[in-house]
Specification:
Elements (H helix, E strand, L loop, with lengths): L18 H28 L2 H23 L4 H31 L6 H22 L7 H30 L3 H29 L7 H7 L3
Helix pairs in contact: 1-2, 1-4, 2-3, 2-5, 2-6, 3-5, 3-6, 4-5, 5-6
């Protein structure tokens, strides 16, 4: 951000629309919406709480990308509000996953490791591709950071799902699936706190008066 309103633009001024970033967001939205449906169906069919948790992550990310597209080019305050909304929704997803994990720990079933493995590989490829495209756009305001954090967390979660599939296959129990889902819940809550803190900090920034205001005061 520039120090003044001339040249670089003020913190409260809308930035120019990044067309490359917009195309990446549209691609990420399409991939995540498709993988949400795939993992939701597969998770229910395989009785895998980690797949269902990952499906909810895909749903949250789809909303994340849609909101980011909506506020792209808006002033910092609007982008910060969007990031705050996304942070809170990510926290809700994390808490839901934690509750679902606790439920499965009590009423434990053994998920289908083969389905977990195949779908986990598909999700990992999708998320690695998305994260690679978003890596160049990871710096900036809270809204951009929220997009990168969610994408990064998803790639980590997919590796964890594959580890859970291997654990279920090796042990014949559902505990690896439950353990991975608990880690994913912690990742979601941790990412949510990071996004919320950054967005609240941006919302507390004082509004910068327009250049004309300074000029007007100079005549008095």
């Amino acid at each position: 951000m520039a120090a003044g309103c001339c040249g670089g633009g003020c913190p409260s001024s809308p930035p120019p629309v990044d067309r490359t970033y917009r195309r990446v967001l549209w691609f990420a939205l399409a991939v995540n919406a498709g993988m949400f449906l795939v993992e939701l169906i597969a998770g229910a069919a395989a009785d895998s709480v980690s797949l269902q948790a990952d499906a909810m992550d895909f749903l949250a990310d789809s909303a994340n990308y849609a909101i980011s597209l909506l506020v792209l080019g808006m002033a910092l305050a609007w982008r910060a509000r969007a990031a705050l909304l996304k942070g809170l929704s990510l926290g809700v997803v994390g808490l839901w996953v934690a509750g679902q994990t606790a439920w499965n720990a009590v009423f434990q079933t053994v998920p289908q490791a083969e389905v977990m493995g195949v779908v986990g590989v598909m999700a990992l490829v999708a998320n690695l591709g998305t994260a690679a495209l978003l890596y160049a756009h990871r710096d900036g305001d809270a809204n951009r950071q929220s997009v990168w954090i969610c994408s990064r967390n998803d790639a980590i979660a997919n590796l964890a799902v594959l580890a859970a599939a291997a654990g279920v296959f090796g042990t014949g129990t559902g505990w690896p699936d439950i353990g991975v889902a608990a880690i994913m819940a912690a990742l979601s809550v941790s990412g949510a706190l990071q996004i919320v803190r950054r967005s609240l900090a941006e919302l507390r920034l004082p509004p910068v008066p327009a250049a004309g205001t300074h000029a007007h005061r100079g005549f008095h």
